[in-house]
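[step 3/7] fold_predict: job queued, chain A
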Amino acid sequence: MRVVMFGYQTWGHRTLRALLESDHEVVLVVTHPKSDHAYEKIWDDSVADLAAEHGVPVLLRNRPDDEELMGRLKEADPDLIVANNWRTWIPPQIFGLPRRGTLNVHDSLLPAYAGFSPIIWALINGEEEVGVTAHMMNEELDAGDIVVQRAVPVGPSDTAADLFHRTVDLIGPIVAESLDFIASGRTDFTPQDRSKASFFHKRSIEDSRIDWTWPAEDIERLVRAQCDPYPNAFTHYKGERVRVLKASVSKGVYGGTPGRVFIREGDGVVIVAGADARRGRSHGLLIERVRTEDGTDLPATEYFRKMGGYLTDRP
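[step 4/7] structure written:
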């Protein structure tokens, strides 16, 4: 098949690599220009550089909405478009152009977690599995029939970085299997159960702000989800922003006001957490390691030298 690829960052890079290693011909690559946005500088293997290394023509676009792009796509005469981590909507005149349609690769177990940052949202929400889905694109974002889907389990100490590496390793095999299915003429793909669909927005700095009324279990997952190299989960202490790098749920149950710097336990410091904390029914969050505003990493026991005071969501 003649294949055009739309993609960006490491997800697009892995997809393009799988296409280049296949028996199919990559005739054009469309990718985004480099960005200084914090999230787009994470996992930023260059699709454009990989295409250039293999002599594949490249177009840089923020959006696929100009006449030159449409002309180049028609000249490419694709049997299939394959997309992964393309950051804007692809209109019907493009995804419907190839003879065999457009295959989109998304890093969630669709129909759940359509949209943005699916691994981070899934980890925060305590999902037991994450994964990757290849589906045929239609007019609704991440809603088309499923071609191939693979899952990996989420362990009790897994971070978003751990899950990124496990899911990105699924991309190559999933793309290869999907190409085989489509090239064989198969169209017996699996419709999504739209009653189970969910759609999540892009994450921003506000989404990393710790709310101490959350249960400690939820905050602990937020800390793992916002691990390096992502912007870390953060709070404020005595007016200074403090990033929480490592935390766990306390062994003891502690009562009081959420956010209170309460007591040492093991190698960390317990912060009162949870809506039921005032009734003495909640475990606290045991903070073990923090990063100060100047970038210094410290054990929590060195940072919180005295007990008392409060962690707050604002300075």
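[step 5/7] annotate
The chain has a mean pLDDT of 97.
The chain has two domains: 2-200, 206-312.
exit 0
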